[in-house]
Structure formats: C-alpha cells, structure tokens
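Late entry, written up from scratch paper. The run itself happened at the end of the previous shift, but nothing got recorded in the book at the time, so transcribing now.
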Amino acid sequence: MGKNNKYSDEFKKEAVRLLESTGKPKTTIEQELGITHGLLGRWQKRFQINEATDELELSDVEQLKAEVRRLKREAEILRQERDILKKTVSIFSRDAK
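Output as recorded:
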C-alpha cells in the first residue's frame, strides 16, 4: 500500500487481533501486512477491541485525550462569548452616560 493510505477499521482490528493472538513480533506482522514500521504499535496503543461487541474502539487514554480536546474547544468558545459580552456591556454603558 502507498504512502498516506487510509486503512479501514476492519483492517486495523484484524491487524491488532493478529498481533495479540500470535506470538510474532510487531515488525514481522508489519512486514507481512505491508504497512509502515511502527504503525501497528500505534494502532495497538490507540485502539482496543471490545470483546463484547468485537468492535474496534479508542483506548481509554485516547478517549480521555479526545474529551480534553473537546473541552478545550468549548472553553475557547466560552472565552470568546464572554469577551463579546464584555465589549457589548461597555458599549451600552458608554451610551447610558
């Protein structure tokens, strides 16, 4: 596969499952699958297979990182809204004098 390819969740799930079920080293599996060196390790850190649903999902750490990113975006929006309200209040306060 070429550079910057997007791999399907099914492919990632099977690659992680292959790594966990066989005793083969990551580099060997990466070579067999034709993926970039280190990619399988990143997938293993980032994703986990939910045994109940057999679905690929973000690991707990990745879920927390996503939540932090969401909260930072929300905080920035709230800061901008607050600044707009402060400016609006100051404009109307000047007109009232």
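The mean pLDDT is 83.
(Scratch paper discarded after transcription.)
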